[in-house]
Amino acid sequence: MMQKDSRIYIAGHRGMVGSAIHRKLLREGHDNIIVKASQELDLRNQQVTADFFKEHKPEYVFLAAAKVGGILANNEYKADFLYDNLMIQNNVIHQAYEYGVKKLMFLGSSCIYPKMAPQPLKEEYLLTGLLEPTNEPYAVAKIAGIKMCDAYRYQYGCNFISVMPTNLYGPNDNYDLQKSHVLPALIRKFHEAKANGTAEVVVWGTGTPLREFLHADDLADACYYLMQQYNDAGFVNIGVGTDISIAELAEMIKDIVGYKGKIIWDTEKPDGTPRKLMDVTKLTKLGWKATIQLKDGIKEVYKQKFDTN
Ligand code: GDP
Q1: Are 235 and 184 in contact (CB under 8 A)?
Q2: Can you tell me the distance from the alpha carbon of 187 to that of 174, in angstroms, rounded to the nearest whole number?
Q3: Domains in the chain, start-ordered, CATH in brackets?
Q4: What pLDDT band is residue 295 in, cutting at 50, 70 and 90?
Q5: Could you tell which of 204, 206, 249, 251 is best to mutate to test the pocket of ligand 1, judged by most ligand atoms within 8 Å of the CB?
Q6: pLDDT given at position 106
Q7: Residue 71: band (very low, low, confident or very high) from pLDDT cuts 50, 70, 90
Q8: Which residue from 68, 71, 266 has its CB within 8 A of the most atoms of ligand 1, so it is best to mutate?
Q9: CA-CA distance, 28 to 21, in Å (whole number)?
């Protein structure tokens, strides 16, 4: 069990997920948290990572460091997504074994599932079909991470667990229009269109894909809970259990921002996977449920990021 003074390392604490876990640990009174900016500690480098573990000997590790991005970035920087993610996770998981970490949590994403898997996505559908091509490199890396955790558990008895969150949003999200995910991209597009009095906002794809959105603070809460409660191979989906279409999401954000213009659909841009809804039965049985409503969550992140009043 994690104690208040346990040495806890959060890999990727500047990112949306890592920063949410950091806030959660601080709120829970943990006072021996280890964090390092990626400029100081390049987790892609094996020696540097080994030296870090040797020096700090963390007892618990949240592995939230990853190269992440939306549909275009994933599709374009295929080599970087594969290389960076495999290197980071291999180094951290292996050094966690070398230095006797008591428990490690590896974080992935719902894109690990086959493109045409039945919905909602149950954990057992992993590796039952072909992946969505636009994010295959990222997915392959994350699947390797799950298998690494399971292999180290099997061969060496390490308590390494994996969790796969659905699409996330929250503080410290990426708002770069080329690299971000849909939710922050739309907040920014509608906000700027309103501020500039632009008549139309271009949204990618057909608007028909369905996505599920989880607030990063809910995710951090679930991670903290599972770090205490779950000690098994395989992985646990973390989601809210319901989804909405990109068209509905666009209307919701347009409304929250107060933009009065038109939405134009750019069907030259990819839709990606048609639906990506997590089955959260396993998580619910373990005793955890999301609490932040999508509309409330979007209002909050919009206010934090852009609100002028
Ligand atoms: P995905 O869940 O891995 O497909 O990643 P995204 O969040 O990037 O995209 C989700 C869906 O939103 C896709 O169907 C996109 O085509 C659509 N979408 C609509 N407008 C945008 C936008 O401005 N940025 C992004 N990233 N996606 C958009």
Answers
A1: no
A2: 11
A3: 8-172+212-243+277-292 (3.40.50.720)
A4: very high
A5: 204
A6: 98
A7: confident
A8: 71
A9: 10
What is d(CA 274, CA 211) in angstroms, rounded to the nearest whole number?
8
Q: What is the DSSP letter of 131?
A: B
The protein residue whose alpha carbon is closest to atom 6 in ligand 1 is 181
- Is 15 a residue whose pLDDT tops 70? yes
pLDDT, average across residues 268-281: 94
Which residues lie with the beta carbon below 6 Å from any ligand 1 atom?
Answer: 70-71, 111, 135, 167, 180-182, 185-186, 203-205, 209, 211, 246, 269-272, 276
Which candidate, 133, 258, 287, places its Cα nearest to that of 194?
258
Cα separation, 240 vs 242, in Å, equals 6
Residue 308: is its pLDDT beyond 60? no
Q: Is 282 helix (H, G, I), strand (E, B) or coil?
A: helix
Nearest to 267 by CA among 251, 252, 247: 247
Ligand 1: distance of its center to the CA of 270 in Å? 8
DSSP assignment, residue 111? G
Ligand 1 center–CA 207 separation, angstroms? 9
Burial of 213 (0-12, 13-18, 19+ CB in 10 A): buried
Distance 60 CA to ligand 1 centre (A): 34
Residue ID of nearest Cα to ligand 1 atom 15: 271
- As given in the structure block, the two tokens for residue 82 are 């594969």
- pLDDT (average), residues 74-91: 96
Q: 40: which residues sit within 8 A by CB, 6+ positions away? A: none
State the number of CA atoms in the 13 A half-sphere of 106 facing the CB: 32
Q: Are 107 and 163 in contact (CB under 8 A)?
A: yes
Chain segment 187-198, per-residue pLDDT in tens? 999 999 999 999
Residues annotated as catalytic (active site), given as ranges: 138
pLDDT band of residue 309 (cuts 50, 70, 90) is low
